[in-house]
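User: Could you go from structure to sequence for me? I need the amino acid at each position, not a summary. Structure tokens:
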């Protein structure tokens, strides 16, 4: 028997790792610039504060600049790419 290949290339993408936020909190109205640190950010598709998506820019594989959406209390912040979703860091609205 023979095998054929369609020539497709598969690239493994590890899930992102989120290790820190700076600052770790802001106003309930949102709009605060937040720097996320970690790894695997180059292919990030979503940054979520609680249940709310944030506008963000990928600076490099280890840094994302996000704008906190409006919210209240302590929320989990995560980063998602095609490999999965990071563990959460806490952002507190006040």
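Assistant: Here is the amino acid at each position, in order:
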């Amino acid at each position: 028997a023979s095998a054929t290949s369609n020539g497709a290339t598969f690239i493994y993408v590890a899930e992102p790792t989120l290790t820190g936020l700076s600052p770790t909190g802001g106003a309930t109205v949102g709009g605060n610039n937040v720097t996320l640190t970690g790894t695997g950010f180059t292919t990030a598709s979503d940054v979520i504060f609680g249940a709310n998506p944030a506008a963000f820019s990928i600076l490099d594989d280890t840094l994302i600049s996000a704008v906190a959406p409006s919210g209240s209390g302590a929320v989990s912040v995560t980063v998602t790419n095609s490999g999965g979703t990071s563990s959460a860091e806490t952002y507190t609205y006040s």
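One structural detail worth keeping in mind: Residues 17-93 form a domain with the Immunoglobulin-like fold (CATH 2.60.40.10).
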